[in-house]
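Take one record.
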Amino acid sequence: MLPEPHRLRRHSDFSLTVRRGRRMGRRDLVVHAFDRAQADELVSSGGPRFGLVVSKAVGPAVIRHRVARRLRHICIDLVDVVPRGTDVVIRALPGAATASSRDLEKQLRAGLLRLDLLAPVSTSA
């Protein structure tokens, strides 16, 4: 489970991130990111917060919950690498229902990388 300080809860936070943030689409996900320091209102500047949108288009409840669990697990690993004060909303597309956890993680990391929220991974070992 994603720790409480790293979860988006309020509808207004989701709306602000989706409407005013930057967006990067992948095959099975759309990643929205918003830097809370840019907000006009006074907000907390704690660690990154993640929110999930898994609609009925993804599939029945069992499939939607499976996709959400996979995405939450991936987000736990990203808490330490996404900049503080960033809100990230991950919208699952219908293809996420059949995608593996590894594919979802690759797509999410690629989206965050394109949004300049992750440092490029060095492959020289």
About this structure: Strands lie at 22-25, 29-35, 49-54, 86-92.
